[in-house]
Amino acid sequence: MHTDSTHSDSNVPGHHNSAHHAPSAAAMEDRYASNERVWSGDPNAALLNAVAGMGLDVASPRTALDIGCGEGADAVWLAQQGWQVTAIDHAPTAVRRAQELAAENGVQIDARAVSFQDFERAMFDLVICFFGQLSDDDVPKLESLVAPGGWLIFVHHDMESEKYLMPARLKEQLTELELVDDYVFEKNLERGGGAHHHRDLVLRARRS
Q: Which stretches make up the Methyltransferase domain (predicted)?
C-alpha cells in the first residue's frame, strides 16, 4: 500500500474527475468552459509514485501518451522530466488550458482534442490513464498503444463500476501486456473543511 498527503483547495475535489457519475464529453466541455479552473494544477501523486518505481533511463528519449489529460498537470510534469508528451482529452477547453500550462512552465506538449481510438499504429513508451471513462471494449486498443519495452499506468478510484473499466477487470483482460503490479494508493486531500482520505487503485503493466 502506498500513501501520500496532497494539498488541494475547496474548488478542487480531486486531480481528475470521478467516474461515480461520469459525464458526457459535452458535459465535460461545459464544465471546463464554465469554470476558470477545475483542477489544482499539481501532478497526480499516484503518477509520481508509480513512475518513481519504474527504474527508467532518464537519458533515453521517451514518448508518453496521457489519455484524458484534463488541464495538463500530469502531462506537463512528464515533459519536465524529459518525456515527449502527447496529451489528449475530449474537452477542447481542457486541451487549451493544458497547452497554456505547458507554455507557462517552459515545456512543450502535443495536446489534442481527440480520442485515443483515433491513433493508428502509434506506440508510446509510456501510456497513462487516470480516472478515465473507458469500457472493457477499449482494452485491445489501450494495449496496442504501448511500445515494446513500454509501460501502462492505469489508475481509478477505489469504487465499483459495471459501466467503466476498473483496474481489476483490466488485469483480467490483459493479453499483450504483462502485469507488473497492482496496488492501493492512499492520499489525504487537505482543503476547506479539513482532510479527506482517498484510495486509488493503481495498475502497472509492461510490454516485453
A: 65-147
